[in-house]
Write a structure and sequence with these properties.
Blueprint (H helix, E strand, L loop, with lengths): L4 H15 L24 E5 L4 H6 L6 H12 L8 E4 L6 E4 L2 E4 L4 H18 L3 E5 L1 H8 L5 H4 L4 E3 L5 E6 L2 H5 L4 H24 L5
Parallel strand pairs: 1-2, 1-5, 5-7
Antiparallel strand pairs: 3-4, 6-7
Helix pairs in contact: 1-4, 3-8
Length: 210
């Protein structure tokens, strides 16, 4: 069986290259590139839209409010985050300064497409059994077309724009925080936990990467 060291070295090289990325203008208004993190060979890969304010400052994915919501859901779904690879389709925080605050702005199609080169390399190195796309931006980028989450949730699908990688879709944990009331937040959170549990079950049935 080949050593894992070459993959680890390749991962480090790609992460270093991503740090200096200027492929789109988003780097100009961000603190740093936020690359993915997690073990190479992780069976499950979670991908969101882009880093937020805290992720941009700390240089790590899903460490802000949405990340804490994701951590809670992972625990409830019986998933150890340290065994999952977590990343975003866009590696810089797209934001609009508003006084002392920086407001999140949705990345456009061009920004998603030019940044996807980094995820393609992450996917080739990590080689997960299953990719869970969290939110419409990530799901649509991997599907290669606009995706309606409600139609695809709970299904294992092939992501055509990611080499037909097996995957599932769910909501982005930030959408739970935006729910208008407690009942809405509870329902959205329960849905995320349910989707993560389904992903674990689906992952167990899929063959491991050769």
């Amino acid at each position: 069986m080949p050593s894992a060291k070459p993959s680890a070295a390749k991962f480090a090289k790609v992460a270093r290259e991503a740090k200096g990325c200027t492929r789109c203008p988003l780097y100009k208004n961000a603190t740093q590139t936020v690359f993915g993190e997690g073990p190479i060979g992780a069976p499950l890969l979670l991908i969101g839209e882009q880093p937020g304010d805290q992720e941009d400052l700390q240089g790590r994915p899903f460490v802000g409010p949405a990340g804490k919501m994701l951590d809670r859901a992972l625990v409830e779904a019986g998933v150890d985050r340290t065994q999952v690879y977590v990343t975003n389709i866009v590696k810089h925080f797209k934001n609009e300064p508003r006084g002392k605050r920086r407001l999140h702005k949705k990345p456009n199609r061009y920004e998603v497409e030019v940044c996807k080169i980094w995820f393609d390399q992450e996917l080739a190195i990590v080689r997960p059994q299953l990719v869970v796309a969290m939110g419409v931006t990530a799901a649509s980028a991997l599907a290669g077309k606009t995706v309606t989450l409600s139609r695809l949730r709970g299904q294992v699908i092939a992501f055509a724009n990611a080499g037909n990688q097996q995957g599932m879709v769910t909501i982005h944990p930030s959408s739970i925080l935006r729910a208008p009331d407690e009942a809405g937040r509870h329902a959205a959170y329960a849905g995320l936990v349910k989707d993560l549990k389904l992903a674990v079950k689906a992952c167990a049935k899929l063959p491991t990467a050769a």
